[in-house]
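Schema walkthrough. Field components (list of strings):
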Amino acid sequence: MESRFDLMANPLGAKIAKRIYNVALAIVQSPLPEATQNLVMLRASQINGCGFCVDYHTKDATAVGETAVRLNLVAAWRESTVFTEAERAALALTEEGTRIADAHPGVSDETWARVREHYDDDQIAALVSLIAMINANNRLNVIVRNPGGSYEPGKFADLAN
Amino acid sequence: MTARLNLFGSPTAIAAKAAGHFGLASKTILAESTLPAATQKLVLLRASQINGDGYATDVWSKNAAHAGETATRVNLVAAWRESAVFTDAERAALELTEQGTRIADAAGGVTDETWANAAAHYDEDQLSDLVMLIALINATNRMSVVVRQRGGDYQPGHLG
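Field assembly_structure (string):
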């Protein structure tokens, strides 16, 4: 399975990718727990069918100690016992914030209230930005058909400034 | 988090007997079908993910890993279309699984293209087993989700 277009081989594409990576770094360095960040990115990537991103974030999560059970249950988190209430609130926000197309009702007040209960303003700023970022990245990769399977943890570290 | 209702609560109850028949039907395919065991697990996992069945997602991801499936392939089942780690035959089975699972509210069912693609990779016995497997997992997904039987503490090898 070949990618349709190598964004990184194009100077403008590479420049944009570098900026996106550095926006992501600001989120990574936020007070939102790293494990929660990985769950959020994985769930959005599953919903958007982004193989490259699912590969990326499951391997990165594993590299920092996330268990296989939790990673495998992200797709069915609602019916699982292995996530905290705070993580469940973040996952609910991720799903509703990802499924906004074609007059889906967006994020409910109930979900937002639950997020408010578990996260402070800095964490919420990070969470909302993270959901937006991963949805953008999912689209970049799905449109050019970047396949998942061959990511190695830490591969993009050299994009950092 | 305990389930709302234990379907197996009373071994003599009709529900427990019926559930036993479901189990036996699944086991017949799992044990006797010429459909590759790895493919069967991918199918069971994908339907369970779509239906949000935590219990079955736990069961089939652990059973797959236990049988030697790699973490990369298990993790990529949710995004198989955009992944390089599945064979064309597995992709055909996964596509049939998705369309056979998402049939609610006149969604369109299984397209001729998907069916022809599956028929190109599997013989009639295997196709029949695949259809039965997709039907059975969709039924058992509903059993778990309705009674809220949650996933997380399954021990590999216990089922299937």
